[in-house]
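Collaborator request log, item 7. Partner lab (contact: R.S.) asked for a structural prediction of Putative 8-amino-7-oxononanoate synthase to inform their binding assays.
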Amino acid sequence: MFSERISRLQGSLVREILAIAQQPEMISFAGGLPAPEAMPKVDFTGMPDSLSQYGPSEGEAWLREAIAAEMSRIGVPAKPDNVLVLTGSQQGLDLAAKLFVDQGTPVMVEAPTFLAAVQCFSLFGAKFVEVGLTPNGPDLVQMEQLLERERPRFAYLIPTFQNPAGFCYDAATRTRIAELFDRYDVVLLEDEPYRELAYDECDRQPICSQLKSAPWIHFGTFSKTAVPGMRVAYLVADQRLMPYLYKLKQAADLHTSRQGQWAMHKLLTSPDYPAHLERLRGFYKVKRDAMAESLDRHFHDLADWVVPPGGLFFWLKLKREADTYAMLPKALERKVAFMPGQPFYATPRISNELRLNFSNASLERIEEGVRILAEVIRKELG
Ligand SMILES: Cc1ncc(COP(=O)(O)O)c(C=O)c1O
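Returned to partner:
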């Protein structure tokens, strides 16, 4: 009855855990939910009635112009014609998968990587080529060997405040990746939902801005800086890819909500927007620091981690071999939710890692949750 690809359809563990984590007494470190109190008020006052009509598939001209200007400011020389407005950057991953992936197509991803990207690429039959990740970025020696041997059609990378690891690639790594991708003519999919959430100094120069010949797509979103429920995001791509992406977008949903685009444009161009971003960074930095202190207190003998310079997550590796997936039910019983490491790997493995989100819980609940989680893990490790 179903298409052949449905045999590869996976559920999203995040969404399943999130459903459990919605219970009010649960302390949730599981999702990547922005804090509701940090979200700007969406103001529809003055929205033209004409936006109730169907609109252009590529997105509203004024929003594309504002996004192109922002991309140029961060070093990516983009024109409005290079911008496609998306219904969430998740949609961009779907369009890219449709553009590039057939059954068995080699696709490079970081290990670990964003699990919803794995879900999306595997549906279309991707054969994953995993490159190991260090706090400075991918293992470059391994990356070069894999590019040479596996010839992936594209590489999906999250260079700035990676999800789940929180790492930020350093400048030399970014430059080297651009050189390698030009040499091997690999398409770069650069996903940057967290780039504005920077708490410490680190290099954030988009890799696509350093490419000379390799094709590229860069994804951005308003989900983490404004409101995820609006589902407004964008891609900026190499001119060679735009006609295909435009038609794929048209086939997928005609266009992104015009009202949502209008509200995001109003926010993006408001004189208060830079101050909003500053407040947001300040607000999350306090939470990041609170979780770092709680981890020092309760996890120092249990796990290793790097304090993330930005983004929304800590990535912990237990000092002993263990399966954090098997520990999740015990933590949920004690009303603490976290994401085990296992689903962040494109090829199945047992993982002694866990991802902890710090943006959603209050400061008190961060301390309480980390304390309880350490108790659960200590007991499980015997
Ligand atoms: C790496 C990464 N890419 C994409 C997304 C999806 O963002 P959006 O809300 O724009 O679909 C997320 C959200 O958590 C993410 O972490």
